[in-house]
Structure prediction request, 140 residues.
Amino acid sequence: MRILGIDYGDARIGLALSDASATLCGRAWTLTEWNLDRAVDAIADVVRAEGVERIVLGYPKNMNNTEGERCAKTKEFAQMLERRTGLSVVLWDERLTTVAADRHMMESGIRRENRKQYVDEIAAVFILQGYLDSLAFQKQ
Prediction:
């Protein structure tokens, strides 16, 4: 089963695709699209082309566990994805994934001015892998 992890942003959307066994993240990339309808269409195309069976969308709760304006936008995005793909969307707590992605790039020696182009796809990898790890833990 392939699972698609998404880090949703207004200008860039990070995407991460699991391997066929839904154990590891296999590939990640960034979708740069300002138009929300076109972005959802592009993601629906990925779902069809890659045989995705589940979507995991990063849910940006505040550090104090409250939901802000960004959560409302994310829920609306999830509903659009569900309508276009026919799949249910799992909302996954994404707190600190962008911070972790930035730290990972810094430790990997990626220059600060180059990090912006990778941060969303790396955050999507952390979202997806966190979800995949939770599935593996539930099986134990």
